[in-house]
Amino acid sequence: MTSSSEQQLLKDDLVALASSTRRGFSASRKDRDKAKSIINELSKLSPTEEPTAAYYSDAQATSDDIVPSLAGKWTLIYTDAPDITSLDAPLSIQKLGRIGQECDPPLIKNVIEWKRPSWASSLPFSGDEDSRILQKIVTEGASTPADNPTVDLKLVGLEISGTNGSMEESNSGLVNSLLNGPAALFEQNPIKLQGPLKGPFGKFDILYLDDEMRITKTYQGYYTVNVRQEKENEWF
Question: How far does CA 157 lie from the centroid of its chain?
Fold first, then answer.
C-alpha cells in the first residue's frame, strides 16, 4: 500500500469516528483511544516538513510557496479537549454551532458559532432559527524553523458579531436590534476589542498537515482535528 493510500484510509477512519462521536463530544474512552491511535499513525505520514512556515517571521521565511499551508479557514471535526467539549451544555442560553479557526498570519482566530436553542423558539426577543452569533478569540501566532512544528500563541483580543436572517434593513437601530434578539444586536453593533497588551495563550504542535486536514496537539496533551473549508462553503 502506498503512503498516500494509507493516509487516505486513516483520514477516512478518523472522519468516520469524528462523525459517530459528534466531534468527540460523546466519545467514550475507547473512542478517544482509537482516535489517538489513528492520529499517531497519521503523524508519521504527514506530507509537510514545515507546517508552521506560515507563522515564521519575514526574516525566517524559507519560501513563499510552501504548501500545504496552515493559513486558511478550518472547521473542527474532532477534539478531546474538555474546554471545548464542555461548551455543549443542554440548557445553555445559546446552542453551540460550528467551531473553527481562521489562520491569517500573524493572527489565529478561534471561532465559535452560537445559535438560538430550540427551547427558546417560542420566547420573544430571541431571534429566529437562522440567527447566530460568532465569537472570535483573537490570538497572534509565531514560530521559527527551530521551533517547527510548534506555534506559540499570545492573546490579543476578542471579536463578536451576529447575523439575523429575519431582520429587515429598515428595522435597523438599537431598539429594533434588541427586539430581534442578541444576534441582531451584534449584527448592528459588533464588538472588536484589541489592545496594546498581549498575554500568553499556550502553544500547539502540528502533527499532521495536508491540503485537506490538520491535526494539532496542545501542550496539555489534547488533540484537535480540523478540515479546510472550501471557499464556496465558508461559514465565517
Answer: 16
| Per-residue cell: 178 | 434588541
Dihedral sign computed on CA atoms, order 229, 231, 235, 236: positive
Cell representation of residue 114 = 452560537
Question: Strand ranges (DSSP E) for 20-106?
Answer: 72-79, 95-104
Of the chain, the end-to-end C-alpha distance in Å amounts to: 38
CB-based contact 34:78 (threshold 8 Å): no
Q: What is the pLDDT of residues 149-200, one digit of tens each?
A: 999 999 999 999 999 865 454 455 555 555 567 888 899 899 999 988 899 9
pLDDT in tens, 74-120: 999 999 999 999 999 876 778 999 999 999 999 999 999 999 887 66
Give the type of residue at 204. F
What does the alpha-carbon distance between residue 210 and residue 11 come to, in Å, rounded to a whole number?
Answer: 11
How far apart are alpha carbons 100 and 186 in whole angstroms?
19
- Residue 202's alpha-carbon distances to 52, 53, 80, 147, 213, in angstroms, are 15, 18, 17, 14, 22
Q: Is the dihedral of CA 30, 15, 4, 39 positive or negative?
A: negative
Please report, as a single letter, which amino acid is at residue 20. S
**How confident is the model over 42-59, as pLDDT tens digits?**
999 999 999 999 999 876
Cα–chain-centroid distance for residue 37? 22
Contacts with 65 (C-beta within 8 Å, 6 or more apart), sequence order: none
Half-sphere exposure of residue 96: CA atoms within 13 angstroms, side-chain side: 17
Report the C-alpha gap between 109 and 201 in whole angstroms. Answer: 12
